[in-house]
Amino acid sequence: MPPRLSALRWLLPLLGAWLLPGCDSGTQGSRPNVLVVVIDTARADRFGCYGHRGGLTPAIDKLAKEGVLFEQASAHAPWTLPSTASLLTSLHPPEHGAGGFLDLSPLEAGGAPKVGFRGLPDAQQTLAETLGAAGWRTGAVVNVDFLDKTFGLTQGVEDLDAQWYDSNNEVRSAKETTDLALKWITKRQQDPFFLLVHYFDVHAVYSPPAEFRARHAAPVDQHDSNFVFGTRAHMLMLRGGKLQLEAPTIERAFKLYEAELAYVDQQVGRLLDGLQAHGVADNTLVVLTADHGEEFLDHGGFEHGHTLYQELLHVPLVLRFPGHLSQGTRFSQSVGLVDVAPTICDLLQVPTPDSFGGHSLARALAGGPLIERPVLSHGNFWGEPLVAWRSGPWKLILTPTGNGDADAGPSERVELYNLENDPQERTNLAGSSADVVARLRADLDSVRSFHAAAASGKSIELDAAAQQRLKDLGYMGDDSDAPHEEDPK
User: Fold this and answer.
1) Domain termination site, one of 347, 373, 399
2) Mean pLDDT within 255-268
3) pTM of this prediction?
């Protein structure tokens, strides 16, 4: 893996007191805690702090007012394993290697789906390993098999409470998850801690508690829990072409999804109140995000893992650090989940591993500029990986469509959207903006080649032009580099 440079690494000895006033790094008890909350399957546009008016997320909206919100944060994959791996390793899916897909082709012959998932290699360094080595106690409460020890994402976690289930009808509730997280904090509050809390309730199937069902579900479902949609069996039928989606069914599912989000919000609020009750809220950096979103016929489909449109990639990202981050600050520039781990390291004054490929946002959080860089997303739970490249207002999506011509190579569908003018990605401009497509593809190809060489362990030799292109894109060099020329709009 080639060396990566973090923006503030060389400045930390000089800036430490400014970034963290009153924090004595030599006293273990005064070092900040870190609470990372990941809400599985939470699309950003359902949160009040992101513009939704349904009153679903008052606790998280309050958190955003007390901290910093990134309006355009993107996941790097549309499903849990590769996306969360990117969050915890600061690497893109082609770099960290965790992912794969579920092969449904055996179903056509009456067989069972073929599982083709890959875990995180032991050699990849996680945020938990980094903080653990620096003296933080590390814990995690997680609720899906992809975050258990088998797949390696929680390597470096001392106290791992992981549950996963044969059926997504039976999952640990948000209340139980919060109870366990608070219990762990109670035991560890005398030491600086890193705690990852993962809520799974918003994931299908949607079965909110009665209080939230009555408040947010469709009228027909407010007092009746017999409607069940989104089971694993449903998803296999849907991806196998044996289940047709009907708008009324998806609309009912969407309202139950919102009810689940409201329930999780309540429990996130209880978790944050618990920090206050234990006297550690003022010395805890809170990071709240999601691994991906959920589709409800936005582009004709349902659930997640199958596209790279905004309903699956646009996720919340909120940070609160009392006394260290300005309250109510919002950033409109694009950022990615790979930027979270180096930001945490910089805010805690912990040396950022050379392997981390994201860019620290600490300079912007301290009042400096935030240089917007392209964001790469990659993956597909149900087949060959899709690729998205967001650069300025533009978003390019490449979807494999088959083997193509033997001479021309594999074929693909090309989509181009201007997210400033078309945030819901309705008008494909690829045919009328060939010059933009060509420029974005050239940038994307450079980065993909860089990732492929790095992942293979090969020595990377780049000519001057290739080095400059990657530097301009933010994939080599650091935040002291001048921003590249803005994209045409």
Assistant:
1) 373
2) 98
3) 0.88
